[in-house]
From TrEMBL:
Pfam families according to UniProt: adh_short_C2
PANTHER family recorded: 3-OXOACYL-[ACYL-CARRIER-PROTEIN] REDUCTASE, SHORT-CHAIN DEHYDROGENASES/REDUCTASES FAMILY MEMBER
Name of the protein in its database record: 3-oxoacyl-[acyl-carrier protein] reductase
Gene3D superfamilies on file: NAD(P)-binding Rossmann-like Domain
Entry's Gene Ontology BP terms: bile acid metabolic process
MF term (GO), any: 3-oxoacyl-[acyl-carrier-protein] reductase (NADPH) activity
EC number: 1.1.1.100
Family the entry assigns: Belongs to the short-chain dehydrogenases/reductases (SDR) family.
Amino acid sequence: MIKEKVAVVTGAARGIGHGIAKKLADDGCAIAIFDILNFDDVKDNIDAIKEKNIPVLYFQGDLTNNQDRNQFVTKIMEEYGRIDFLINNAGVAPKSRKDILETTEESYDFVMDINLKGTFFFTQKIANIMIEEKENSDLNIEAKIVNIASTSSYTSSPNRGEYCISKAGISMITKLYADRLAEYGINVYEVRPGIIYTDMTSVVKDKYDKLIEEGITPIKRWGHPEDIAKAVSVFCSGMLDFSTAEVINVDGGFHLRRL
């Protein structure tokens, strides 16, 4: 078993997940990344984490595939021997935005399988390992799970309904696992990003530039992956150990719903 705490981050080859992985590496964690992207396409991003002089494991796999999930976890335990933190970040938007009166089953299944089903069962897998770790008092592992949801957990966007439903589901996963795992001393948290500049949102940059300028958020700027990463770092720090199912909104104040 390695001496460093191990943070497992899904979808960390780029975007918000990459920002989270870099921050947790700065905090001294060994990193295990699960992403569907080919390693050669994201090598520079992975190398940027390795520059922190901590162990980094990259596993290319499909979150919707049970065999891939199991192989990834086996690899983690073989190389690191422990899991301290799980950050459920992986997620997709619809391939094309369509009104809910026109949404296809194909698009619905694509989004829900990755964002919700894959996350639920991957969390189940990791949670059982964390329970075993907690029951072995010699390990002294303070396991935590952090889910990356969205302001879309509660905000209606009828042109991407499947995404909103998936993120509302993530918020319920937070509550369910927080409730179930509390007896083992495993806390579960949630971060709800707002308008964050990533590849996913770059296609609607002009729209959000205008909305931000018009005051949709009290803090009038785009958020960045680093903003999300800071919130995750706080949850993993142990500073909030008497809180579980807690949510940090990283949205420039959007959740205020001001008039």
